[in-house]
Automatic annotation (TrEMBL):
Subunit structure: Homodimer.
Protein's recorded name: Acetylornithine aminotransferase
Organism whose genome encodes this protein: Arsukibacterium ikkense
Protein residues bound to pyridoxal 5'-phosphate: 103-104, 136, 221-224, 279
Aminoacyl-tRNA synthetase listed as a keyword: no
Segment forming the signal sequence: none
Length: 406
């Protein structure tokens, strides 16, 4: 049977609009499609493939575990899950870990835990959750409502209640909403889908102080920023602010689906037996791969390398911008980078992404005006330079008509 893009339209629910190309092989920071065309991957599966494609450590962990044990119910535990939980506890603030299959599920667990904790400790009235406009926390009905983008949550009937949205990086906005009924504040240290917007240190510190003053839990959504993406194992470490609950997914499995919620013993004890669960959470295959990913990433060589590679990325983007004048700002933390289009190129982020694919480089968007980059944390410098050369060709294609109009 010939597998083509048209088969997607025939058999798949139309909630996605994937590109026409179908990759069939990946190695390191390179991909190849059905026709054998090569691409340099600056997208990383949206910050998922933290070690690129088919990294030997991850492949080896998967193959080894595949010959041992694939799945157990949560009536039993398993060695890979316990070893991964121990690694996460040893290298973060956390004392307890809950495993899920995705970032949305990890966030769902975090929000349910926050509500349960507040109910048990303070009473039914303390149920308000505050998040931030332009935030993104997943696609379950609870998490998509907490996320601050109505376009994702509208159109599905009545939404979960008790949720408010403040302005990101605006403490006064949060101060106006938080009160004795607030059970938790959920925030991304850097908004990914919301435009690759880092939180300021002052903002994060202020959020922590407001949570403490109102007996509210602070939840860090590190689904996109976690596992080395910012140059720290988790982004909270650079802020000097410790959350009460942290969620992690995406890069945690290096491409294998897994999510986790991290918290303290005192908070975790409120999820007693039967209050929450997941059929596949803690799956031995996923946990074995994730342990290999965390172990490989959490080294000075890789984490320091993220900082160096991020500087090279930004230098190359600035070099392109000096020539074509299309970005108003290049921002981000580590290897989650956003190039913000200026007024002359407003709305053309997707055009640049599509032109990039034509020229053999894969990028992302974060809204209509931000070109997003989330490559492998170990992408070779040579691949960064080569990929930027291809991106420049794509940008020249987009910029040329504008230049002619001028």
């Amino acid at each position: 049977m010939v597998v083509s893009r048209s088969l997607f339209d025939e058999v798949m629910v139309p909630n996605y609009a994937p590109a026409q190309i179908i990759p069939v092989k990946g190695e390191g920071s390179r991909l190849w499609d059905q026709a054998g065309k090569e691409y340099i991957d600056f997208a990383g599966g949206i910050a998922v493939n933290c070690l690129g494609h088919c990294h030997p450590a991850l492949v080896g962990a998967l193959k080894t575990q595949a010959d041992k044990l694939w799945h157990l119910s949560n009536v039993l535990t398993n060695e890979p899950a316990l070893l991964l939980a121990k690694a996460l506890v040893d290298h973060t603030f956390a004392e307890k870990v809950y495993f899920a299959n995705s970032g949305a599920e990890a966030n769902e667990a975090a929000l349910k835990l926050a509500r349960r904790y507040a109910k048990d400790k303070y009473g039914e009235h303390k149920d308000q959750i505050i998040a931030f406009k332009q935030g993104f926390h997943g696609r379950t009905f609870f998490t998509v409502t907490v996320g601050g983008q109505p376009a994702y949550s509208d159109g599905f009937g009545p939404k979960p209640e008790g949720i408010e949205h403040a302005e990101f990086n605006n403490l006064d906005s949060l101060r106006a909403l938080i009160n004795a009924n607030t059970c938790a504040v959920m925030v991304e240290p850097m908004q990914g889908e919301g435009g690759v917007m880092p939180a300021t240190a002052e903002f994060i510190k202020g959020v922590r102080e407001l949570c403490d003053a109102n007996n509210a839990l602070l939840i860090f959504d590190e689904v996109q920023t976690g596992v080395g993406r910012t140059g720290e194992l988790y982004a909270y470490m650079a802020y000097g602010v410790t959350p009460d609950i942290l969620t992690t997914a995406k890069a945690l499995g290096g491409g294998f689906p897994i999510g986790a919620m991290l918290t303290t013993t005192e908070i975790a004890k409120h999820l007693v037996v039967g209050t929450h669960g997941s059929t596949y959470g803690g799956n031995p295959l996923a946990c074995a791969v994730a342990l290999a990913a965390v172990t490989t990433v959490n080294t000075p060589e890789v984490l320091n390398g993220v900082t160096h590679k991020a500087e090279l990325f930004k230098r190359e983007l600035q070099r392109i911008n000096d020539k074509y004048q299309l970005f108003s700002e290049i921002r981000g933390m580590g290897l989650l980078i956003g190039a913000v289009l200026n007024a002359d190129y407003a709305g053309k982020a997707r055009d640049i992404m599509l032109a990039g694919a034509e020229h053999g480089v894969m990028t992302l968007v974060a809204g209509m005006n931000v070109v997003r980059f989330a490559p492998s944390l170990v992408i070779p410098d040579a691949d960064i330079v080569a990929g930027m050369a291809r991106l420049e060709q794509a940008i020249a294609q987009i910029a040329a008509p504008t230049a002619k109009q001028a």
